[in-house]
Amino acid sequence: MKIGIIGTGNMGRILAEALIDGNAVSPSSMMITNRTLSKALEIQNRYPDLTLGRNATEVAENADAIFLCVKPHDVLGVLETINPVLSRNKCVISITSPISVNQIESKVDCSVMRIIPSITNRALAGVSLFSFGARCTMEWRETLFTLFKKISVPLEIEEEITRVASDIVSCGPAFFSHLVQSFINGAVKETEIDQNTATKLTSEMLIGLGELLSQNHYTLQSLQEKVCVLGGITGEGIKVLDRETGDMFQQVFRATQKKYETELERIKEQFGL
Fold first, then answer.
1. Whether the predicted pLDDT of 6 surpasses 80
2. Which top-level enzyme class is recorded in the Swiss-Prot or TrEMBL entry (predicted)?
């Protein structure tokens, strides 16, 4: 199977590198391209056996599974460009949440699915979110699910939870990185610890936390109960967190949903449905 990636920005590059480093595909079975070819060339320099396509049409013509890793408002233009070379046995995969599989199916005759990756997939971890088009063959469903098991935990989701699921698995690392940085900054401002030491300690703590959860030693709730001894120091910190965070995360999801709805309207205007 030949994998094609159209668009090698942040997520396109992460996807290409994860699939290769996770031994899901070999570099020789992948072809990539980007509007600015120098970005794609950077990836080829790392994996010399990978093929660099001159444009989207060349990639779509030579690949079996074609990943569209471009901005949402560029997807329709790419679909219209590559449609003449899309035979029925190919599969088009979008990685962007505002565009539904139904909208893409309205423009092409091949199998269609959406796979929303996460930056955590670069570490061969985290979740990838799957949605399948009505015409997507069982063979393609099984093939891509198996492929992504090498770099993630693939999970099929319903259309109505696409945004919140994407917020958790795809945006979540950025949200929590922001909180962690605030945690570090607070320690530096209020105590004698320096930035580098605080960052090192916090990073190692997070890695350890991840391992505890991964190895099923604790759940999030039981871990908190183990550390938060009644009347202890941790409890005092938890009181502050309860008081200060309040409905913060409700507001986060409210804001992302509002932005998503705006994107949906713009995409509907483009696709006409």
1. yes
2. oxidoreductase
